[in-house]
From TrEMBL:
It holds the Pfam family FlgK_D1. This is Flagellar hook-associated protein 1. NCBIfam families: flgK_ends (TIGR02492). Belongs to the flagella basal body rod proteins family. It comes from Ureibacillus suwonensis. Residues 102-375 form the Flagellar hook-associated protein FlgK helical domain. The gene is flgK. PANTHER family: FLAGELLAR HOOK-ASSOCIATED PROTEIN 1. The keyword Secreted applies. It is found in: Bacterial flagellum; Secreted.
Length: 555
């Protein structure tokens, strides 16, 4: 025979379950604006019906329901969408950082501009043409020297500013690695908390959210994958376990592999090392063998976990790369562990500017040394006739400078092509014509005459490295490539942002808290709670009638 109080028990379970659902709804509403929070829901299921199976089970028309129970509190989350979001976050981290680095370079080089290097070249050539027309005008010669100083200063400024930004990128690599290490430690600590809670049958949804938010942040820096490891014990079927975080890399053969960054409560520590084995930190650390290097390039990422240490280079990152690799690509990296083969956006631009400065100084000096100066050409033995216009030691963009002797005495500008003809400005015109001349090895420039009438053909030096480009067209080619790279980075950044926004909206539509929906649920659960309470009142009145309203027979 069924229990007299069976209906009370079923309604009591209904009260407790609807109450739990209301508390969960309140928790959702309270965290509507919490970053990374996933809405939670109660999974309700009916309790076992009456009677149970057995020889002594009473005969009934069928199972009689005994109420409801809350099986679990689950968060609403889609693992597939999470994976998509992290892949797009990883790509966005790369292109966003690349676009920012190129934008800073464009701000420094600032072309076309009234104040850029191209304009400094133009003013310098124009001043030389003025000297060719008025070779005995000291004022015109002073203007040439000042324009040359301005040109050298423009080279120096660009070199200094680009190296300063490169140093900032090195510092950002250091900060990013520290941030990665902090995230890995936090994930490992959350894993420990989850491993302590789950075996008792609880589902710590808020810890899951906090951990997933950290994984989202980590994906912006590195291409990582996740493996779930059960906690064991009396863990719920919906428990997610601890995370094993792995870095996706490819070896020298091109095959893909994984390096463990977090395993349970254990986590790895990362260090970005340069070619000297020191941390990349953006502080100047010049290689004595390569004094033009302001910063030693990145060499390898050292990953230490317990007693095991592994290293990977720039080439070991997978297709999905992240912010850290983008910083490395911009800052500069070594391809062979030495400072002899350096790649990267900023080092390659600095090397190109050094090549331009070196070719310009060597070519211009050789042509200038062949000409004759004002007021000194009657002395064939004087070294003044073979003076360098630019300091021969300044063969880089950072060191190019005008010869101090010309700064002190502008009459030393070699404008004449014939010894003894002070009013001859043909050689200044030859110098000015270098602006439109393809710079090839041993290119014939012009002829000069000594006082005896002997002619000598002047040629450009060997190995200038501009491959037939003029000085300005070579520089304009650098600017053009910079513009193309910047456009590509911004385009891919925008595309990736759009795709990630779409994925983020899909995730939000599933996991984020909708106050309208929660208010509807609140009313629904409140009504169910009230109905269960009313049911208890009804059963109480029924029992009161049976117990107190019915008399005892025979009295």
């Amino acid at each position: 025979m069924r229990s007299t109080f069976m209906g009370l028990e079923a309604s009591k379970r209904g009260l407790f379950t609807q109450q739990t659902a209301l508390y969960t709804t309140g928790h959702n509403i309270a965290n509507a604006n919490t970053e990374g929070y996933s809405r939670q829901r109660i999974i309700m299921s009916p309790t076992l019906g009456y009677p149970g199976a057995g020889l002594n089970a009473p005969m009934t028309p069928g199972y009689i329901g005994t109420g409801v129970k809350a099986e679990s509190v689950q968060r609403v989350r889609d693992e597939f969408i999470d994976r998509q979001y992290r892949q797009e976050t990883n790509k966005l981290g790369y292109w966003e950082t690349k676009a920012s680095a190129i934008s800073q370079m464009e701000d420094v080089m600032s072309e076309p501009s009234e104040y850029g290097l191209d304009e400094a070249f133009r003013l310098f050539w124009s001043a030389l043409q003025d000297v060719s027309a008025n070779p005995d005008d000291t004022a015109a010669r002073k203007v040439v020297v000042q324009r040359a100083i301005h040109l050298a200063d423009s080279f120096n400024y660009i070199d200094t500013q680009l190296k300063q930004i490169q140093g900032n990128l090195g510092n950002e690599i250091k900060v990013s690695v520290e941030q990665i290490n902090s995230i890995l430690e936090q994930i490992a600590n959350i894993n420990k908390e989850i491993q302590a809670v789950e075996p008792n049958g609880y589902v710590p949804n808020d810890l899951y959210d906090k951990r997933d938010l950290l994984v989202d942040q980590l994906s912006g820096y590195l291409p990582v994958s996740i493996e779930r490891v059960p906690s064991g014990g009396n863990a719920s079927k919906v428990a997610e376990g601890s995370y094993t975080i792995k870095l996706n890399v490819k070896d020298n053969s091109g095959s893909y592999s994984e390096i463990v960054l977090v395993e349970g409560g254990n986590y790895a520590t990362l260090r970005a090392l340069d070619t000297s084995g020191k941390l990349v930190d953006g502080d100047e650390d010049t290689d004595p063998a390569n004094p033009q290097l302001a910063y030693l390039p990145f060499h390898q990422l050292e990953i230490s976990m317990g007693n095991k240490t592994q290293t990977i280079g720039q080439e070991n990152f997978q297709e999905f790369k992240g912010k850290l690799l983008s910083l490395i690509d911009s800052y500069g990296y070594s391809t062979d562990g030495t400072n002899n083969s350096i790649k990267g956006y900023f080092p390659e631009m600095l090397q190109s500017l050094d090549k331009l400065a070196s070719a310009f100084v060597q070519a211009f000096n050789k042509v200038h040394e062949a000409g004759y100066t004002l007021g000194k050409s009657d002395d064939p033995d004087t070294s003044v006739n073979r003076i360098s216009f630019f300091d021969p030691a300044g063969l880089t963009a950072g060191t190019i400078k005008v010869n101090d002797a010309l700064v002190k005495d502008p009459n030393l500008v070699a404008a004449s092509s014939v010894q003894g003809e002070e009013g001859n400005g043909k050689w200044a015109l030859i110098l000015a014509n270098l602006q439109s001349m393809p710079i090839n090895n041993k290119e014939s420039i012009g002829k000069i005459k000594d006082k005896d009438g002997n002619e000598t053909t002047v040629e450009l030096p060997d190995n200038l490295g501009l491959d037939g480009a003029t000085f300005q067209s070579y520089y304009q080619g650098l600017i053009g490539q910079l513009g193309v790279d910047g456009q590509k980075a911004n385009l891919l950044k925008t595309n990736t942002e759009t795709i990630r926004l779409t994925v983020e909206n899909n995730r939000a539509s599933m996991s984020s808290v909708s106050l309208d929906e929660e208010m509807t649920d609140m009313i629904r659960f409140q009504q169910a709670y009230s109905a269960n309470a009313r049911m208890i009142t009804v059963i109480d009145e029924l029992l009161d009638k049976v117990i107190n309203g019915m008399g005892r027979a025979g009295l």
